[in-house]
Backbone:
């Protein structure tokens, strides 16, 4: 009689295979990893030119600037999340597999977040110092971006799954997910602002953590359903 643990182990192995496959594909095309960082760098360097070199003004606006740019960078890369799998037929094979499509898709989303959102959060202090963000806000910035980019990536995965079969679906993707990204933007900006002003940002970070946990529970199911709808259309 087979062990009751075998299905879960098999499911975990399937998740790991998808994670490794998508991670290796991202590493083979470093442009997909570098583009969000280059976009972040270019926009952050343009703000002082547009707003003026006043360090106090830049520092006061830095939390909002950094979070808006992070949202736009996440939006930029979300459109291509499942595109290559759809084009080469891998997505259809995933849908026909014995494992839930939501779990297999989550493996790809996890690799995508580590290579884009997580990396962006880790290097964000460099961009923050370019805008003069006070040092007491750097740790909260990194933590809020780790949680926030996870939420943005999961939301983007749902939008990407819905529009993967639509030619030039970037505009539709933006219309679908930008309203859903607004709470993440508000919570993240508020957390960094509270830290910079010397107040306790834990309330906003807790809200972001709860939002990330809820998205982890619900978004994979939505992604799996959206991918099946796109394949059937």
Residues:
């Amino acid at each position: 009689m087979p062990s009751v643990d075998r299905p879960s182990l098999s499911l975990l192995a399937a998740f790991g295979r998808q994670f490794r496959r998508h991670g290796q594909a991202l590493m083979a095309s470093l442009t997909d990893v570098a583009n969000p960082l280059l976009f972040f760098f270019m926009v952050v360097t343009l703000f002082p030119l547009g707003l003026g070199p006043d360090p106090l003004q830049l520092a006061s606006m830095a939390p909002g600037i950094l979070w808006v740019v992070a949202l736009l960078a996440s939006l930029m890369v979300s459109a291509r999340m499942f595109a290559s799998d759809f084009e080469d037929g891998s997505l259809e094979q995933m849908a026909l597999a014995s494992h839930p499509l939501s779990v297999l898709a989550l493996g790809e989303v996890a690799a995508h977040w580590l290579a884009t959102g997580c990396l962006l959060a880790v290097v964000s202090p460099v961009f923050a110092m370019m805008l003069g963000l006070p040092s007491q806000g750097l740790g909260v910035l990194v933590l809020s971006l780790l949680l926030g980019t996870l939420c943005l990536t999961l939301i983007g995965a749902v939008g990407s799954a819905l529009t993967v079969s639509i030619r030039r679906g970037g505009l539709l993707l933006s219309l679908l997910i930008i309203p859903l990204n607004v709470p993440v933007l508000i919570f993240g900006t508020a957390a960094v602002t509270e830290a910079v002003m010397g107040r306790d940002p834990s309330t906003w970070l807790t809200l972001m953590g709860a939002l990330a946990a809820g998205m982890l529970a619900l978004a994979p199911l939505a992604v799996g359903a959206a991918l099946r709808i796109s394949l059937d259309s």
About this structure: Residues 202-232 form the longest helix (31 residues).
